[in-house]
Amino acid sequence: MTHDDIDLDTQLLYETLRIRLVELRIIQLYPSDKIQSPVHLSIGQEAVAAGACAALLPEDLVFGSYRSHAFYLAKGGDLRQMMAELYGKATGCCGGKAGSMHLAAPDVGFMGSSAIVASTIPHAVGAALAAKRRGLQQIVVAVFGDGATEEGVYHESLNFAALHQLPVLFLCENNGFAVHSRISARQSYDLLEHADSYGIPTRLCAKGNDPRAVYDTVAAAAERVRVERRPTVVVVDTYRQMEHVGIGEDHHVGYRSPSEAEPWRRTDPLVNESALVARFTPQILREIDDAVAFAEQSPWPGADALLADVA
């Protein structure tokens, strides 16, 4: 779809809806065992990726986490190649070797994701160091969840980025949980105050299911990073509607109740903007149908691909 004829708010809703419909199709497909890897869904969190990526320039780089379908798509990753990757096919964005948790589309600036918590944060810092030394005006975005901030490498990355004044935007999707563990049971620090202790400017977006609110917050932060050439931390409060990994809900586990999601569901733009959702859904579903057909008709990797790209 071209966005020349629609306003920003409509474009943001379209991208948010596209991500959700793709993941709803993944839910439908998963029981067939055609998808060859575990999946971490972003349902409820789609607006973070849609708003954040719309605030970036094409040359800006994004490093994601294992929950990266949304950022892959929002940054411009090819849906056909993503679906083929989930199927384990040779036409996938990583040749069928990476699966859901390791998507990459460097041609559009989505530099990769990893199943290892917090592991791409220092990669983003390194890319920002390279941008600084090369005199580039691009900025680099590290995307991670609140649980990743408990890893030592996060603290080391903040320190290094602040010390060397690097153009990196640390973007935390704060859904309040690490698997089944609440943030209050894990962290003695406040995310914003902690970043401030390194002298890093911070911004908070409390309306993480509102793509325009995310866009406004990230756009302001990105502009600051771009102009001042130093790091910023953005925390976006959001809510993961599905289980940590898989296609189901997990209220039966006992760590949260359905009522906790109700405030987020009531303010979900994909529920409230029903006319726009109805307008865009058919064309998005056609695109998804095409991507699924492409994945199913694509060949499996051959034996000659086994050691390809292995250093």
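the 2nd protein, sequnce then structure:
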Amino acid sequence: MEHQSKNLSSYLSILVFVFLCSCNSSEQNNVVSLEPTHKEKLNLGKPTRIIKLQTSPESLLGSVMKTAVDSENDRIFVLSDGTLFIFDAKGYFITKVKKGKGPEELYDIITFSVDKKQQLIFVNQALANYITIIDYDGTVLKNDKLKESFYMLTVEPVDEKYLFLQNNSPLHSNPFFIGKYDLSKDSITQKFIPAKESDYPLLMWSMTNNFIKKGNRLFFANSTVFGLYEFKDGQFEKIISYDLGTRKVPPGFSEKFEKRRRMAAFEKAALNNGYVPYMKASFYFNDYNLVILGDEYFSCYAINEKNRSNVFFNGPISAYLNLPKVKSFKNPCEINEDYLVFAANPTDFFDKNSTADKTNIQLGNQKLEIGLEENPFLVIVE
């Protein structure tokens, strides 16, 4: 009996050892060092369509934060300076959501998501705690305050019943990044991804696209977590982590900025010390996992989806997509599995010493005349 007990004990020890080794191996396989292994130029796409957005007194745009192009339903949604503008698929202005604090008005929109199937827009307002839904004509259908404190950065429709909410303050009473909101119950029923996944969760910025769909798969990225999550089997699983090496913000560096949530000051201090404070985007496009870092160059790394040991670095994302290296093309304002959208500011294409008010440009096979005082135009890359 004693001999059998020892054998059983040894067997269990071996099982535990094998289990731990397999877990460590799995974790290591999910870590990708953002150091290039390939120097050759990688071509992932090209501009295929340009859409000029009508310039009028009612439709004047400033800096474009995000877009949603829904050609099938004849709509283009553009977020600029806290206001959501609605154009048709050819770029003609239709209307904009009224800005303010009165009935049928929304206060300072910071991001939005579109459900093309239901033709609904889910809007997030600055410093608000509201579930806000508008239709494709800009009419506010729902603007109800949440029953619990869960201030949001992003609202993402899951289906007709549920929304995913990204928490703006993932600490204290709600130490999670994501809440699952049940529209029928008007409450958050589940929470995902603990705040401890980030070294400085309270300093995060809103990204252009936190939630990204690819077929039936849903991914999530956060500006202060250098990795990518996938929602499957009812949970968010971290499927890849990015190793920044010496460029990672060291422990304790962020503490003095967290109390008053001084994001801009933290970002500046980190960059001055050679660290990368934020991730701007992480998504799949044309068989590659693209990662855009928030360094001074908006460096973009391309990781082969089938073999993660193949890491390319061409510079900013524009270098992979046959786009000129200008400010407008450093980060897409819309991310889809088949195409990307960039909002191009006309001033990026005029010489500083030029006195002309119009110029001609060519992007790929597309030729265009643009005016210095015109609205930004959209460039679709496939």
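The chain is about 10% helix and 40% strand. Confidence is low (pLDDT under 50) at residues 14-27.
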